[in-house]
Specification:
alpha/beta; Aspartate Aminotransferase, domain 2; 7-stranded mixed beta sheet; 4-stranded antiparallel beta sheet; binds pyridoxal-5'-phosphate
């Protein structure tokens, strides 16, 4: 748990910095500065702020200004005011930004149904491209022996079939992360991998540092775990990883969750210097979860996962085959220090008794073609990214594509204060795209949309053309044009 402590006046003044700069009343500016310090992980849940009268004297403002700013923060659920005892940081925010999406779209997201006319909201590589001979499981394989000669027996293999664990460990080793089969757990996907790691390692009240933007279900899982999420923003679309590492130490974080090789939204990778900063915080005891789900989309040569730089037990790597092979496979993995495997397996056993054997048999066969499939996927998204860039440059010149262009998605900044209304409007017109606000933990507005490139060439082209038609018809396009929300 995060221990309660009193923040002293000097510390608070330093945290608030140039709080008077900005817009709104003095009380609103003060409230915003407190909120930003919470977001940076410099004020933590349960900490107590100094008395309002003392804050007023320290900052040279009237007491009523401080009272009003605390009222603003209390109304947003960010502080809890206790008569006579001061204000405590709760760190909780009002409902996340997805609430601004229309119920139809929200429930589609929640149900994972992205199959609108323009399939550009989800990462959905096609099974049609996979080698057909790898997609079969014979009766004898199920009854007698897996591809490398082991009988699946009862079918209950909590950590995964031995042959499949071997195939995953061989793939990781070939990609520069030496791994034995006893360090691998087969899961139903990276979402389950993250969920197991969080269940096993976190307790309510722990502080967890994440990137912003990050994979939305990571945020959902962390909220469910009752932890305090501190997110580190992007600067020019790249995550400030060194800043993230610093915040993790300062906030005494239990965990940092990063996508060191391909950010879910921007496609950015962490530089080798920043990777060292992440390894250092792992050495200092912070559990670093390196989500490699999209790493295969990174152009070759790919940087090696963080765990290849240090054998720290506190670096856990997770990944998936659902985004590079096919979503319907439902296969992912955790790679951890072998001593952590038994407790992760026990955690998995609470909700299932082992991943599907037929899927694991197919996966072991697909893994023989891993590099060929990954090459194909990279080529496909690069081709669609180039066509989409051309189209946007020509037809939507005030849309800004951010990020290096790696990965299966594009992160696009629209000339509006908040893209939620446009995302909802486009959906009503029949085109689904990701709303940027879902990829950040702070519940604030976002100018961004996320557009995926994994459905077919024609589908992506049609989806982007439909999006342009929706933009032309979007009534608020002009009214909201001048905006600078991040
Ligand atoms: C970064 C990241 N992590 C995890 C996942 C979840 O993957 P899975 O479908 O295997 O649960 C995704 C899916 O897009 C992702 O992009």
């Amino acid at each position: 748990m995060v221990s309660s402590r009193s923040v002293d006046l000097d510390e608070l003044r330093a945290l608030l910095g140039e709080w008077r700069n900005g817009s709104g009343s003095l009380a609103e500016r003060l409230a915003a500065a407190v909120e930003q310090a919470i977001e940076r992980g410099e004020l933590l849940q349960t900490w107590r702020l100094p008395a309002e009268r003392s804050i007023a004297e320290e900052l040279g403002v009237g007491r009523s200004t401080v009272v009003r700013s605390m009222e603003v923060l209390a109304a947003r659920g960010i502080v809890h005011r206790v008569q006579g005892a001061g204000s405590f940081i709760t760190g909780k925010r009002s409902s996340p930004r997805t609430a601004s999406l229309p119920p139809g779209l929200r429930s589609k997201y929640q149900m994972g149904e992205y199959t609108g006319p323009g399939i550009i909201a989800a990462t959905v590589p096609s099974s049609a491209d996979l080698p057909a001979d790898a997609l079969t499981v014979t009766a004898s394989e199920l009854l007698d022996a897996s591809p490398d000669g082991e009988p699946p027996g009862s079918g209950y293999h909590l950590a995964g079939l031995a042959g499949t664990r071997r195939a995953i460990s061989a793939m990781l080793t070939a990609h520069g992360l030496p791994t034995g089969p006893n360090a691998v757990i087969v899961t139903t996907g990276a979402t389950q991998s993250l969920s197991l790691v969080f269940d096993q390692a976190l307790a309510p009240g722990d502080v967890v540092v994440v990137e912003s933007p990050t994979f939305p279900p990571t945020l959902d899982l962390l909220r469910r775990a009752g932890v305090q999420v501190v997110s580190v923003r992007t600067g020019d679309a790249a995550v400030d990883t060194e800043g993230l590492a610093k915040v993790a130490l300062k906030a005494r974080a239990k965990m940092a969750v990063v996508t060191a090789t391909c950010n879910v939204a921007t496609g950015h990778s962490v530089t080798s210097e920043d990777r060292r900063a992440l390894v250092r915080i792992a050495e200092a005891g912070v559990t670093v979860v390196d989500d490699c789900t999209l790493a295969d989309y990174h152009p070759m040569p790919q940087p090696r996962p963080l765990a290849a730089m240090s054998d720290q037990r506190s670096i856990i790597t997770v990944g998936s085959f659902n985004k590079i092979y096919w979503g319907g496979l439902r296969m992912g993995w955790i790679r951890s220090h072998p001593t952590l495997v038994p407790s992760l397996v026990r955690t998995k056993a609470k909700t299932d008794t082992g991943s599907s054997v037929p899927s694991q048999l197919i996966l072991a066969k697909l893994l023989r073609h891993h590099d060929t499939i990954a090459d194909l996927r990279r080529l496909q998204v690069q081709r669609r990214a180039a066509a989409t860039r051309d189209f946007i440059g020509r037809e939507l010149p005030d849309w800004i594509i951010e990020g290096p262009g790696h990965g299966p998605a594009m992160w696009i900044r629209l000339p509006v204060r908040d893209s939620a209304e446009f995302v909802a409007f486009a959906y009503q017109q029949g085109t689904a795209v990701g709303y940027g606000g879902m990829y950040r933990s702070d519940g604030r507005a976002s100018q961004h949309i996320r557009l995926t490139l994994t459905s077919g060439d024609d589908e992506v082209a049609r989806g982007v053309a439909d999006l342009k038609a929706a933009w032309s018809a979007f009534p608020d396009r002009r009214r909201t044009r001048k905006g600078n929300a991040r």
